[in-house]
Amino acid sequence: MIRILIADDHAIVRQGLKQILEEHGKMKVVAEFSSGADALYWVYRNDCDVVLLDISMPGKSGIEVLKQLHAERPKLPILILSIYPEDQYAVRLIKAGAAGYLTKETAPETVVDAVRRVANGKKYISQTVAEMLANDIGMPDGKLPHETLSNREYQIFLMIASATTVSEIADTLALSVKTVSTYRRRILEKMNMRNNAELMHYAIEKGFGKSCRIL
User: Fold this and answer.
1) Interatomic CA distance for residues 153 and 62, integer angstroms
2) Which H or E run includes 163?
3) pLDDT at 77
4) pLDDT tens digits for 102-140?
5) Which residue ranges form the domains of the chain, and what is each CATH number?
C-alpha cells in the first residue's frame, strides 16, 4: 500500500486527487493539508511513502516546503503537482530535490503512474522536462540573470513580471510590503535592471510572457 500525503490549498483538488488515487487500488491518502506548514508538522511526526505537493499555497510556499522536507527526509519522494507550466519551475524544483513535476492538466492515469514510479524510488520526468534538464546541463557556466535569483526572489520576480503589485505580492505571500520591496530591490540589482518594466520585458523575451504566475 502506497501511503500518500496531499498538500494543496484547494479542498476540491485534494478530494479529486484522493478519489483518483484510491480508485486505482494499493494507494491510500493518509493525510491532507491546505498549508505547507501543517504538512511539514505532520511529516516530522508521521510516515508516508509519497508527498503530493502544490507549490502555490498561502504562507510558506511549496518551494520552501520542498527544501525543508528534502533536507529533513531526503529519501521521501516529493511529487510536485502545479498549475504552472513545466518551463517555469520544473528544472528548478527537480534540482531542489523534487522526484517529479506534473501540471494539474495532467491526465489522471499519468498522476497514478507518477506516484507509483516515485514510490518505487524512481524519478518521474516527462520528455519535455528531460529535454530541459539536458539543455540545462549543457549550458555554459555563465548563468542567465533570472538563474542567479534565490527561490524566493525567483518567485517574486515572476509575480512582478505578471504585473502583480508589491502590495498584492505582500498579501499573497503573507509578507510585509517593506519585505517585498527589499526583495524587489535585490532582484533588480542581481539582474542589473532598473525597473519593473525591464523585468517584464525580460520575462517576455525569455518566454515567460503572460504565463507568469505566482507560487
Assistant:
1) 14
2) none
3) 96
4) 988 889 999 999 999 999 999 998 887 877 777 665 544
5) 2-137 (3.40.50.2300), 145-211 (1.10.10.10)
Q: Rounded to the nearest 5°, which phi and psi values hold at 194?
A: -100, -30
Confirm if 145 and 31 have CB atoms less than 8 A apart: no
Q: In terms of residues, how long is the chain?
A: 215
**In this structure, what are the phi and psi dihedrals at residue 182, rounded to the nearest 5 degrees?**
-65, -45
Q: What sign has the CA pseudo-torsion 32, 79, 16, 213?
A: positive
The residue type of 122 is K
With vertex at residue 207, the alpha carbon angle to CA 204 and CA 212, rounded to the nearest 5 degrees, is: 70
pLDDT exceeds 90 at position 205: no
Query: From CA 140, how far away is CA 41, in angstroms rounded?
Result: 40
Q: What is the pTM of this model?
A: 0.67
Contact 186, 153 (CB under 8 A): yes
Residue type, 189: E
> How large is the greatest C-alpha to C-alpha distance in the chain, in angstroms?
55
